[in-house]
Amino acid sequence: MPPKAEMSGAVDAPALMGRYDVVVVGAGILGAASAFHLKRNSPNRRVLLLDRFGAPGQGNTGRSNAMFRNTFTSNDNQILSDSTIECYLKVQSEGTDLGLQRIGYLWLMSNAQLSASEGALRLMDRNGIHTRRFARAEIEERMPGLRADLSSDGEAELMGLPDVDGGVFGPKCGRLDPDKLVRHYVREFTRIGGLTAFSTNVDRLLVGPSKRLGIDGEPFVWQESRVEGVQVSGAVNGAIGADAVVLACGAWGNQLLGPVGIDGHVGAKKRQLFSVSTKGSPPLGRLLHTKGFNDLGLPPLVVLPKAGVHFRPAAEEGDFWIGCEDEVNRPLINVPERSLEGYEAERSFYERSVSPVLSAYFPQFKSAAVKAMWAGLYSYNTLDYLPFVFRQGNLIAVGGDSGSGIMKGDSLGRIVDAVYREADEVSLYGGVQYDPSRIGFERRRVEREGWVI
Predict the structure, then answer these.
(1) Angle of CA points 286, 292, 294, to nearest 5°
(2) Alpha helix (H) residue ranges in 215-340
(3) 404 in a structural domain
């Protein structure tokens, strides 16, 4: 389940007031990684990281499914995620526990879906992303209880559920602990001199003229204007000046960008996760200890052929976590509520929408009761489901990661720093050279992502 918020230590508010080279708004994975790389690449740069919660990663990062993958259909998503995963693997190998487990992703598909995926799989091969293709018989042998052939199931036919004819497995995919990940970046950021202020809400962006004339009402339309900083309240109150502001607050960025006339290019939809226990159900217990996919003797995250329904193990709790695309009849939220507590998971949604699909393919879930459930916001760049980093004047916005901020966090943090420096190229982890303008909006050059869950 998502971590509970903790209050950080008392903030010395007067010491934090003043002017900074960069103020980063939002201490989820994108903000934390951005703040770290901004400070790492210029130790003398004054960088302040702000968040309205009492600790880092308590927004949508903490309510995520806590998974990572490099199996995407778009070239840019493949590059950004694979580099980020390599970085996380290195961090964990050096002794920092990120709770990282390479359990893999298994996409169960019909023949039509497998055929449509051939181009993406060839692209993954070219980018050095290893996948394995399984035939139906191999998956049935490895996945206890799977019903691959639904041709005699009238209810499945009514729901339009295709047979499972095969699958694609990504072995470099898996799960981690979002709280540990974000705290790692914040800890490294503060270790090299970065400053943080939690329980501090950014109420608005401060805009003024590039050259002040001392006239009431500035800036006027004929003056060149710029973001001068942020107005904050909470543990720290007042105006904080900044030469540049980085917004990394997901759909909440619209609350700050809209009033100053900047398009945030993002919307949100509620996403839900449900936990069911394997206790008292030997068939579910056997599924929880599936072998043949990883060294841990656990099932991978399994994506079913319909509606993006998926499940993954939470073996330490003896549970499965279950989710789906949750797109049907969900409003696009342009300006979310300030508290995520207003977005509640719906038991009826699981029982009427998710469970019928899940139990058609894996009947052992049919009698499984929901043990816990929670909801968060899935932040979309609705144009192509890829992240963006764009600059307008001295304001930089990063987001639109469409539920995969954790998977691309390190790469996007490096790109934010490159955009701040106005660099034409950035070196991602592992030495991959990348043009930041590819995921900007002035010269955007990306392919729409097809594997969105």
Answers:
(1) 100
(2) 253-257, 282-288
(3) yes
